[in-house]
Amino acid sequence: TEASFTRITEVDGDVQAFLTTTRDEALARAEQLDKEPIEGRGPLFGLPIGLKDNIVTKGIKTTCASKMLEDFVPIYDATVVEKINEAGMVTVGKLNMDEFAMGSTTEHSAFQTTHNPWNLDYVPGGSSGGSAAAVAAGEVLFSLGSDTGGSVRQPAAFCGVVGMKPTAGRISRSGLVAFASSLDQIGPITKTVEDNALLLGAIAGIDHRDSSSSPQAVPDYRAALTGDIKGMKIAVPKEYLGEGVSAEVKKSVTDALKVLESLGASWEEVSLPHLKYSSPTYYVISSSEASSNLSRFDGIRYGYRAENVQNLNELYLRSRQEGFGDEVKKRILYGTYALSADHHKDLYVKAMKVRALIAQDFANVFEKYDVIVGPTTATAPYKIGQVIEDSLTLYANDMLTVPVNLAGVPAISVPCGFSEGLPLGLQMIGKHFDEATLYRIAHAYE
Ligand code: GLN
């Protein structure tokens, strides 16, 4: 824990991954843990961890990188926080993100821009940019992010670390501030696949506080790391190496496939025909759910409240006007429009139908194959400021990650080379609740 704070002091002025650090509490807890008997300690005991700032922490500010929650101090811990505490981990602070997890660069934080530790002129990805950058910069070895449409995998790829988006329902969402409930999952970010497997094992499982959490037993993920992937059948969707994917990204994937072949796996090209509709489908569904979820921030129950208002309507209006940033307002407007009486049949209902087709595309491939492999992102990281005004490009670049959330399947991103000194990520997508196979192949590859 001390080493973690030393490193934070050294580099976080540049990287700016942390919104809050909890030095005194963390050192006191570490000292307390030192007194516990060695016999009862698990593999994560005493290890420092950072948490994305949309995971509620009792007594520690949880801002979602929004002015709306700038001074919000939760009165309970998220289930994942209880679980990391039970494992003996030490929370060292809360990590920067795009406001309410909406974005792909961490530039939509109301407070600061996180920089990519490999090159400070570049973004770390998003929305869990702080979580990925903190691990890449060695400030912590473990962090938690959340992934609604790629927000764990894409920053993991841009920062050269390992990020897992588990199956929908694998981890309790109780205490994760909701963006789009049918798509949100908490996910571990680490330097190695083994660390990732350990952390998922510690936080997964059913929880009576989240009725969508699954009763499926949590396997020993570390036991899956045998190094043996002989006979594994890999599918490579041609759409993952198609239009919009840069040449260096394609090359990194073909190189990775050669490594996987040399380890005894085989691969074939397949098609996910509805993939081209995944970004528009995702933005309709996620914005619709967000417009509903974010209605709770009304200036009364939580967070920011406008001053000098004349009546209740003005209180709602001005609190939301002043408390939310532009990207969040944009999503609320899209979502409200997509759910409106005049348009919901053409937008929301249609998107739900396309979502079912995308899920079926994955199911068809998984009848014959064990795992799908492709890039995590279409391009290498962007320069800070390069794409912030260009929402359409950013939304389109989510095309390789969002289908996974729409289908509810798990996916991991592992480092697979560099483009001009900046990391690229390889994405491996698995069957529902088959995170173990993903860890096995990712570990053999890494
Ligand atoms: N980039 C996507 C978005 O802006 C994904 C965000 C996420 O996964 N939280 O919505």
UniProtKB/TrEMBL annotation:
EC number(s) recorded for this UniProt protein: 6.3.5.7
Active site: 52, 127, 151
Alphabetized Pfam families for the sequence: Amidase (PF01425)
Subunit organization: Heterotrimer of A, B and C subunits.
HAMAP family: GatA (MF_00120)
Function per UniProt: Allows the formation of correctly charged Gln-tRNA(Gln) through the transamidation of misacylated Glu-tRNA(Gln) in organisms which lack glutaminyl-tRNA synthetase. The reaction takes place in the presence of glutamine and ATP through an activated gamma-phospho-Glu-tRNA(Gln).
UniProt xrefs under NCBIfam families: gatA
Protein name as catalogued: Glutamyl-tRNA(Gln) amidotransferase subunit A
Protein's organism: Sporosarcina siberiensis
Taxonomic lineage from the root: Bacteria, Bacillati, Bacillota, Bacilli, Bacillales
Gene: gatA
